[in-house]
Amino acid sequence: MARQSEHALRAFIETQLKFKTMMTVKTILFATSLTLGLSACGEQATDSNTNPSSQSSESQPFGTNGQLISIQSDNVRAAGYDAVSKVMTVQFDNGYLYEYYGVPAELWTSFIAAQPHPWSQVGYPRLVRGGIPYKRIG
Can you tell me whether residue 45 is helix, strand or coil? Predict the structure, then answer.
């Protein structure tokens, strides 16, 4: 009788472990699909018959509309991007504030994704060394 109970207990534990593993895999797959779905937020599919310049900027939420957001970095305190004017604003830890003009949206995305080293990995090489026009505004 004890052997049957032991066998039943082992079978129960194995079933629970398989179920837990399966649920963990499903959770990971769900989180991945959710992340991929959210990463498409802000991107807008365009119909090939539609003139992209006729779309209003309000329907294309991208960047920060020029508002500064906190940046995780050793030397950058905050940054912002206005997709309409293509102006990127960077505030350094020393308080200096710079505007960079004609910045492609992809550069802004790369800058944000490069945290905690956005300046050394993207900002300096692509803004400064890349020759993007800039001005110190504060």
Answer: coil
Is 132 among the domain residues? yes
- Least Cα distance to 135 among 90, 69, 85, 81 occurs for 90
Q: Could you tell me the pTM of the whole model?
A: 0.57
At residue 94, φ and ψ (nearest 5 deg) are -80, 0
pLDDT at 62: 81
Query: What's the CA gap between 105 and 103, in Å, rounded?
Result: 6
Tell whether the model's pLDDT for residue 53 goes beyond 60.
no
**Mean of pLDDT values over 99-106:** 97
**More confident position, 128 or 41:** 128
Helix or strand run (H / E) with residue 26: helix 2-39
For the cut 70, the answer to whether the pLDDT of residue 55 exceeds it is no
Same domain, 34 and 67: no
Does residue 71 contact residue 118 with C-beta atoms inside 8 Å? yes
Residue 119 belongs to some domain of the structure: yes
The range of the structural domain enclosing residue 22 comes to 1-39
Short-list 72, 66, 77, 83, CA closest to 112 = 72
Residue 88 located in a structural domain: yes
